[in-house]
Design goal:
By secondary structure, this protein is α/β, with parallel strands linked by helices. It has helices at residues 39-53, 85-103, 140-163, 174-183, 209-219, 235-238, 240-247, 263-272, 288-294, 309-316, 346-355, 359-373, 378-392; strands spanning 26-30, 33-34, 57-62, 64-65, 73-77, 107-111, 121-124, 168-171, 191-193, 226-231, 253-258, 279-283, 297-300, 321-323, 339-341. It folds into 2 domains: 18-197 and 377-392, Rossmann fold (3-Layer(aba) Sandwich); 209-375, 3-Layer(aba) Sandwich (Rossmann fold). It contains 13 helices and 15 strands.
């Protein structure tokens, strides 16, 4: 979307309301990127489009903004690099702060600690003080960069949160809210939760059957084989190794891996266990709903999450869930009703996969998972922010 382009009919920018208070209709969303691939960027896309649908006049200040055609917003581009993080983050903090100072209107919401301005809302997708980032590549240079990035994130968060003690801090799950209250007790009374939202129409059983059949044929997965989906990057933290090792004890299942990472070590591990042919590598894809349509279950043995959007999307797609009891997942999965809460142990995952070879159990869990996910749809998330902005205005 071109810099400064107003899409659709729209209305002229509206400034401050009576007594200098922002008009309830005006919202400025500040983010690194708004788009359709990664979790946070997809959430922002849903939020912006939902706010426009409720009549808000939305300005997006970001490096990049990819929205559905006809979405009526004003996009103000912040030029600058997107990587490496150690350069891109401080660059955006300075350039983005200048952009916010120039183009802000109405209620201003920053996506994390990314600008130095005083804002009304900070959406907290990750409490940086928890410090759980793990390198996704093996090179020493990359590992040094990850450590440096962690230092910058934690310092930037402390600075921005300190400057915005009067802001409202909106966390994506109760677990993240607890972390913010623990690390920033002075902000406890201004911290609340609005869960991330799921597009329960796009992620729904049966909507992508033809595409799933074509994908199955392209991947040469034999008919009758059960498929468990793993959708994530940062494979070390997300537990891909455990999922691969579980296949050796669950012979009915194939594993479909969607996401980016260093495949070589994982491929070697799969071959050493005799399951190299049962692991299918899809890479980064926009067709995540098709992946879930193809699958019979979903697995994520993650050591840490803030919300685990993919788990909620898999549940909305009617898949039984195998997931570790991390933030977000604990608010979705009831062990033994709509999925299983798993330990980070291959034998535990394998045991649950063997149980899910029963089609009646898969169907019962999948239907229950879908019902649970409906409680976290995108419309509810958008309404939560809409009501918050009305109170602030």
């Amino acid at each position: 979307m071109p810099d400064g382009e107003e899409v659709g009919a729209g209305e002229p920018p509206v400034g401050e309301g009576p007594m200098g208070k922002p008009s309830a209709g005006d919202v400025t969303i500040v983010a690194h990127d708004v788009g359709a691939v990664r979790g946070m960027e997809r959430q922002l896309s849903e939020l912006v489009m939902g706010l426009v649908g409720l009549g808000h006049r939305v300005t997006v200040i970001a490096r990049a903004c990819e929205l559905s055609a006809g979405t009526d917003i004003v996009f103000r581009r912040v030029p600058g690099p997107s990587r490496p993080f150690a350069i891109a983050y401080p660059w955006f903090m300075l350039a983005g702060s200048l952009a916010v100072r120039r183009w802000r209107r109405g209620v201003v919401q920053a996506t994390g600690a990314i600008v130095l301005n005083r804002v009304d809302v900070i959406a907290v997708h990750y409490c940086q003080q928890v410090g759980t980032a793990t390198p996704s590549r093996s090179s020493w240079l990359y590992r040094v960069h990850v450590r440096l990035a962690g230092v910058l994130k934690r310092a930037g968060e402390r600075l921005c949160f300190r400057r915005n003690r009067s802001a409202t801090f909106v966390c994506v799950s109760e677990g993240v809210a607890e972390e913010v209250r623990e690390h920033y007790p002075a902000l406890a009374e201004r911290t609340l939760t609005i869960h991330n939202g799921i597009d329960t129409r796009a992620f729904a059983p049966g909507r992508h059957r033809a595409a799933a059949g074509a994908l199955r044929a392209a991947l040469q997965i034999e008919e009758g084989r059960l498929v468990v989906a793993f959708v994530a990057s940062e494979w070390e933290r997300k537990g891909l190794r455990y999922a691969i090792e579980a296949l050796a004890e669950a012979p009915e299942w194939d594993l479909l891996v969607a996401g980016g990472g260093e495949r070589r070590g994982y491929e070697e591990r799969a071959r050493s266990l005799g399951v190299g042919e049962e692991v299918h590598w899809l890479g980064v894809t926009r067709e995540v709903p098709v992946v879930y349509e193809l699958a019979d279950a979903f697995v994520l043995a993650s050591s840490y999450e803030t919300f685990s959007l993919v788990t909620f999307e898999a549940a909305a797609s009617g898949l039984p869930i195998l997931a570790s009891p991390v933030n977000g997942v604990r608010e979705l999965i009831e062990d033994g009703r709509n999925g299983y809460l798993i330990a980070l142990e291959p034998r535990v995952i394998a045991e649950r996969l063997r149980q899910l070879a029963d089609p009646a159990l898969r169907a019962r869990f999948g239907e229950a998972a879908r019902r649970s996910a409906l409680e976290f749809d995108s419309e509810r998330m958008v309404r939560g922010y809409h009501e918050l902005y009305a109170r602030l205005a």
